[in-house]
Amino acid sequence: MFGLLKVRRARKATVALISPFVEESQRRFSSTLTEQAWLDPYMVGFMSMLISLAAEYTTGRLDSQSAGLVQLEAWQDVTGFPSHLIGEEICLLSSGHDRKFSHGCLNASRFMEELTRPASTHPDHLPPGSRVHGLNYDRSAAMALWSDLFDGHIESFDRDPDLPP
After folding, report:
1. Over the stretch 9-61, which tens digit does the pLDDT of each residue have?
2. Is the dihedral of CA 147, 17, 2, 61 positive or negative?
3. Is residue 84 very low, low, confident or very high in pLDDT (cuts 50, 70, 90)?
4. Buried b (16+ CB within 10 A) or exposed e, 26-59
5. Are 48 and 3 in contact, with CB atoms under 8 Å apart?
6. In sequence order, which residues have a C-beta less than 8 Å from that of residue 40 and are 6 or more positions away?
7. At residue 106, does pLDDT exceed 50?
8. Residue 98 phi/psi, 5° resolution?
9. For all residues of the chain together, what is the average pLDDT?
């Protein structure tokens, strides 16, 4: 029973942390992201790693079954797409050492580092009230990094495939 409560708490906190960034990206692109974009190896790596890191930050270490459950449920909540295949996709991309997947994982780690950086190391020290979901992060710096790491990748799906890059 305690394990399920921990999974629920991790999922809710993770979704609350990540969803505003995804929603802002969807506003910028004036549309919801397609399944093709979400299932791109980079995006699978980025989102699955970010979900894992956020869940672990929130609740501490999770056993592998609980971590997998958090990933599945948070994936569906954040992306709006069914999660029944994402676990297999993560395993295949990871075990196949897919370079795009690995790059997405690395960038998720970079993003989480920005969110968890101690307030005292922020250039202008954070003002009161900047604590969001248990993290003291500079929202403008986090949004700028999110734009580089997430939106920058999504833009390739937003272009007309017949136009040169």
Report:
1. 999 999 999 999 999 998 888 777 888 889 999 999 999 999 999 999 988 88
2. positive
3. confident
4. eeeeeeebeeebbebbbbbbbbbbbbbbbbbbbb
5. no
6. 100, 153, 157
7. yes
8. -65, 130
9. 83
pLDDT value of position 120: 56
* The predicted structure's pLDDT at residue 2: 60
Place of tokens 């007309």: 160
DSSP assignment of 62-99:
--HHHHHHHHHHHHHHHH-S--TTHHHHHHHHHHTT-H
Mode of pairing for the β-strands spanning 135-136 and 131-132: antiparallel
Q: Are 91 and 31 in contact (CB under 8 A)?
A: no
Beta bridge partners of 131: 136
Q: What's 119's DSSP letter? A: G
CB hemisphere CA count around 158 (13 angstroms):
14
| Domain parsing of the chain, residue ranges | 2-121+130-152
